[in-house]
Specification:
The chain is of the alpha+beta class. Helix content is 37%, strand content 19%. The strands form ten sheets. Strands 10, 11, 12, 13, 14, 15 and 18 form a seven-stranded mixed β-sheet that branches. The chain has a four-stranded parallel β-sheet with strand order 2-1-26-27, covered by helices on one side. The structure holds ligand ANZ and zinc ion. This is Leucine--tRNA ligase.
């Protein structure tokens, strides 16, 4: 008997797979297509346990689907642009081009050591010109479709990373990467018009039953749809007008003032030359210094100031004061609000502070309190509302908007919380934005046939507040593609989330330098059948990728509107409750575990220790346990080579054989469904463990051919989780064909029902007898037979039977006194 020595067999099988090109993607038109994808990693330097978990999950799915007869696409690549490499360059003087590829090399080696079945011929790195040429090509496509535009805007600026951030990259007012408080800065920047797709991005979430509700809810909230009306108020004594967005046009008669965002374009016009201009400007500057979070938080103090202008109520003509206030945001709705203090909490607080009139216009069922201490937000009957009095407010809402519409001063609309995606970054290690500014022609795109715009090697990384690309004159100065005159290149690079918004398409045509991707092939493979990644990207990567796919759909480049049919968001790997990731340091490194126990042990532990969407607590006992289990499987095969080689047709006449056969088919069924339908790998592993236990418990005297068959099945079921040990055992068992090519075992439903079942008979909880019944026996039949048995008769002689408990297929307990 040979000992289980993972180090030897794992290397051997990894080389074998590589030499035989075992994981090349098949594209057999007679087979269905399956695309298994794990979120590609940033090449940080080395894998952490979180990576091991995701890749193992993806690998189990990919190997399983292949055995089930699918063409399986299972690629891997590198989200290789990004700030860490650049910061490393600033600190240690190693060019990102060098450090990134070194990291990729090391991490690739680690992935191979885990035995993940990637088709490496499709590998891509977003920092390679072969890739970012097409990222730039897509930028041009967006530009042509009016989905990329440049504007001056107050943008989120991280002083630490010295770059702007998209709204999605600001978390609780801080930078998503470093946590530094984000400030506003006025800059001319490029945006992607994702708001154009807000309605579809939100609505189509309903067509994604394979996505966790949690992620869909996060996206819905992020996109944030409100239905309401735009209502226009004329400015008294002027041609100007203010349009407000309100979700409650039914409260129109309760308006007692208007509030504009300090940034609202009308503000400067209205205060110009007024006596209080300087005072108001000082207030505006003060508000602009505070973050959006501060301005919108409900417990922040609401601050406002009157401006010397008034508006006219569109229905009553009443004069309404106009204020500006910190709690009105410039880029939501219209940046202007009608103040209805009686029915809106924020307005109530604001009006109380500034002594503005409060007029109740809806009477709720509970009546209007004599003294108002808070806004009335319930529905009710209209009062103080002219012709609309007496109507239910929801009915009045529609009628009021109808009337405003007929007067040309209002209409129903929707507002989204989602903002356009700011994609300019003042950083080096990203794809250059392929645009040129010419004094004569303005903004000119670099023609598609001149792409890629290569990143210049020589730049000064460390000039704070300046794009590194702007430090290379040779790069900056160019000629205008349109007029041939002198022109300057755009020196910002693209947000790296653009790179990752389309990589899953590029895998299809990774080596084709003539097209962004082959539409026909993409339509065959996509949407991705199973996408595995972290929940932290719920409103970043996963939203952006959906946006990209919809744009490509509209451009006729793909025939589907959603990129990921089904999503598995894996939990974290934690160590005594602390998140284990690159930021906390690699407390337990994959190298160490692989060296000590082998990759198969690491894989089985990861799968077994928790359901995939839950956090997984690292434990040394868990690893030991997984290792012991594999040792047990190894010995099970090694010690039965004689019967395995003898083969033969199983004879399942006896009780033990029937039980064994049932255990075997139950395991096949459970593992098949757990992997293929429920994606619950932990219970799949326990089912295999149960089968192995049943094999060990099988009597020596029972049919050997059946035992051999069960051993073979156990090895096959374990293969997707532990491919090295099972491949080795398979060969040891004398099988010629590689396990990769062996079909997934089928189960026989009829083997899952026993025709006889043994019941334990207990009296007052003590086991007294065992009786065998036909599986079809009813509860009553079992009970009657137990009570009539001679043994029971003798035992209960002279006592009263107080209760009979029958647990179907298990036991009968008699309570006697
Ligand atoms: C009058 C009113 C009366 C309002 C009432 C509410 C209740 P959601 O649901 O989040 O879409 N609002 C509109 N634009 C705003 C802005 N730029 N900054 C801050 N607040 C703004 O919120 C819509 C409501 O938020 C709008 O409806 C408006 O107040 C306010 F009894 O108009 B409402
Ligand atoms: Zn020009």
């Amino acid at each position: 008997e040979r000992r289980y020595a993972p180090a030897e067999i794992e290397q051997k099988w990894q080389s074998h797979w590589e030499e035989t090109n075992a994981f090349a993607t098949e594209s057999d038109p007679n087979k269905p297509y399956y695309y298994a994808l794990e979120q590609f990693p940033y090449p940080s330097g080395r894998l952490h346990m979180g990576h091991v978990r995701v890749y193992t999950i993806g690998d189990v799915v990919a190997r399983f689907k292949k055995q089930q007869g699918f063409n399986v696409l299972h690629p891997m690549g590198w989200d290789a642009f990004g700030m860490p490499a650049e910061n490393f360059a600033i600190k240690h003087g190693v060019h990102p081009n060098v450090s990134t590829y070194e990291n990729i090399e090391f991490m690739t080696k680690q992935q191979k050591e885990l035995g993940i079945s990637y088709d490496w011929s499709r590998e891509l790195a977003t920092c390679s010109p072969d890739y970012y040429k097409w990222t730039q090509w897509l930028f041009q496509l967006f530009y042509e479709r009016d989905l990329a535009y440049k504007k001056k805007a107050a943008v989120n600026w991280c002083p630490e990373c010295s770059t702007v951030l998209a709204n999605e990259q600001v978390e609780d007012g801080g930078c998503w990467r470093c946590g530094t408080e984000v400030v506003k800065k006025d800059l001319e920047q490029w945006f992607f018009r994702i708001t154009e797709y807000a309605d579809r991005l939100r609505g189509d979430l309903d067509n994604l039953p394979g996505w966790p509700d949690k992620v869909k809810t996060m996206q819905r909230n992020w996109i944030g749809k409100s239905t309401g009306a735009d209502i226009t108020f004329k400015i008294d004594g002027s041609d100007e007008a203010v349009t407000v967005f309100t979700t409650r046009p039914d409260t129109l008669f309760g308006v007692s003032y208007l509030v504009l965002a300090p940034e609202h374009e009308l503000v400067q016009k209205l205060i110009a030359g007024q006596p209080r201009e300087a005072e108001i400007k000082a207030f505006i500057d003060e508000v602009r210094k505070t973050s959006e979070i501060e301005r919108t938080s409900t417990d922040a103090e609401k601050k406002g100031i009157h401006i010397d202008a008034s508006a006219l109520h569109p229905l009553t003509g009443e004069k309404l004061p106009i204020l500006i206030a910190n709690y009105v945001l410039p880029d939501y709705g219209t940046g202007a609000v009608m103040g209805v203090p009686a029915h809106d909490e924020r307005d109530f607080e604001f009006a109380s502070k500034y002594e503005l009139p409060i007029q109740v216009v809806i009477e709720p069922e509970s009546g209007v309190p004599s003294e108002l201490n808070a806004a009335i937000t319930d529905d009710g009957i209209m009062i103080n509302s002219g012709d609309f009095n007496g109507l239910h407010n929801r009915e009045a809402l529609v009628k009021i908007v109808e009337q405003l519409e007929s007067m040309g001063v209002g209409k129903m609309t929707t507002s989204f919380r989602l903002r356009d995606w700011l994609i300019s970054r003042q950083r080096y290690w990203g794809a250059p934005i392929p645009m040129i500014t010419c004094e004569a022609c303005g903004t000119v795109p670099v023609p598609k046939d001149q792409l890629p715009v290569l990143l210049p090697e020589q730049v000064d990384f460390g000039v704070k507040g300046k794009s590194p690309l702007a430090t290379n004159d040779e790069f900056v100065n160019t000629t205008c593609p349109s007029c041939g005159g002198p022109a300057k290149r755009e020196t910002d690079t693209m947000d790296t989330f653009i790179d990752s918004s389309w990589y899953y398409l590029r895998y299809i045509s990774a080596q084709d330098d003539t097209v962004v991707f082959d539409t026909e092939a993409v339509n065959k493979w996509l949407p991705v059948d199973k996408y595995i990644g972290g929940i932290e990207h719920a409103v970043l990567h996963l939203l952006y990728s959906r946006f990209f796919t919809k744009v490509l759909y509209d451009a006729g480049l793909v025939n589907f509107e959603e990129p990921f049919e089904s999503l598995l968001t894996q939990g974290m790997v934690v160590l005594n409750g602390a998140k284990m990731s690159k930021s906390k340091g690699n407390v337990v490194s994959p190298e160490e575990i692989i060296e000590k126990y082998g990759a198969d042990t690491a894989r089985v532990f990861m799968l077994f220790a928790a359901p995939p969407d839950r956090d997984l607590e690292w434990s040394d006992q868990g690893i030991e346990g997984a290792h012991r289990f594999l040792g047990r499987v190894w010995r099970m095969v090694e010690s039965h080579l004689d019967i395995i080689q003898a083969g033969g047709t199983p004879n399942i006449a006896g009780e033990a054989e029937k039980k064994m056969r049932m255990a075997m088919h139950a395991a096949i069924k459970k593992v098949t469904e757990d992997i293929g339908e429920r994606y619950q790998f932990n219970t799949a592993i326990s089912a295999i463990m149960e089968l192995v236990n049943a094999i060990y418990a099988y009597p020596e005297t029972a049919d050997a051919a059946l035992k051999a068959e069960a051993i073979e099945i156990a090895v096959r079921l374990l293969y997707p989780a532990a491919p090295h040990i099972t491949s080795e055992l398979w060969a040891v068992m004398g099988k010629q064909e590689s396990l990769i090519k062996v079909e997934w075992p089928a189960f026989d439903e009829s083997a899952l029902v026993l025709d006889e079942i043994e019941y334990v008979v207990q009296i007052n909880g003590k086991v007294r007898d065992k009786l065998v019944f036909p599986a079809a026996a009813t509860r009553e039949e079992v009970e009657a037979a137990v009570l009539n048995s001679e043994k029971v008769h003798a035992l209960v002689e002279g006592k009263t039977i107080k209760k009979v408990i029958v647990v179907p297929n298990k036991l009968v307990n008699l309570v006697i006194a």
